[in-house]
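Lab manual, section 2.4: Encoding a predicted structure.

Procedure: take the sequence of the chain (349 residues), apply the prediction step described in section 2.3, and record the output as structure tokens. A sample record is shown.
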Amino acid sequence: MTTRTAYLVLGMHRSGTSAVTQLLSLAGAELPENVMPGDEHNEKGYFEPWKIALLNDERLRAGGSAWDDVFAFPYRPLPRKDERAWLNRAMDLLGEEFGDARFPLLKDPRVTVLLPFWRTVLDDLDIGARGVIPLRHPLAVAGSLRRRDGFAEQKSVLVWTAYMLAAEAYTRDLPRAFVSYDALLADWRAQVRRVEAAHGAPLPNLDGRAAAEIDKALAPDLRHNAATGDLAALGWPGALAAKVLAWFEAAARDEAPSSAVLDEAAEEMSRRAAEMGPLVSPAARDLDAARSELRDAKAKVAVLEDTLTRDRELLEEGWRSTIQRLDQHREMLMAVEAQLDSILAEGDR
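Recorded output:
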């Protein structure tokens, strides 16, 4: 019987995954050993396991894809021997990051399009899974990606569509909850009740102290980008995204929409990939890989700088403590010398 259960936060980048992850971590789910620090795009932090994110980028590239690949769905398995080597790497890394955590909390958007891979890892480790899928309007996501990466809106909404299709398709047999990002910021308690009902289990440790911390964490200022514009103005990418958005909005209202709508959207994406995939030049693929590698390098540098800062502070604290102890020892020696001088003086008399 499975005694460990992972919380998987699934969905597109810039869709509220960080806010959901922070809530779950405050409510008792366990973050990995190494998480990506915040930056100018997300001051509160990403809560992403940066080592796992780097492995995910490598695995996507091994399959001829990237995190911003508009055709990243469906999943592209490697030949069996090669896939097994990647799975073994992932199992080892998961153990390093989470140890024996009862409720490991895994949040990296890339996991969404690699979920068949990661579900195999969890199965091999006898870890169950529950999904939480945040929903944010694709134009709000596009605004954030335009500011951060300079992406065109058409590309962003297509990548959003691929991720959302993957999140739904790969979790149909799992306990899962669809959570509106705006609804989460407006009333997180109501959304937690929905999550717990969908999972059939309470969050691990949502007590009064955790609730107070969540109140402070989920402030209205998290809404950096509003949905502006018209999806229909983006041509077929916008029309396809609108269909997927309508399905997820209904699911976030607990209306149980038919998955046939998303299956049709996935078929259209497959047709578009067959038509347009060969037109993506090697130069464009190389640019995507270079961009991903640069982002990985920046993440490593940020984490190393953070680690070095903490280590320096610890060393300085230890150095100051050592000097303080030496000063104390010096004072004790001076006191002993004074006593000896006094004794010798008494002897001379």
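Check your result against the sample. The domain at 4-280 is CATH 3.40.50 (Rossmann fold).
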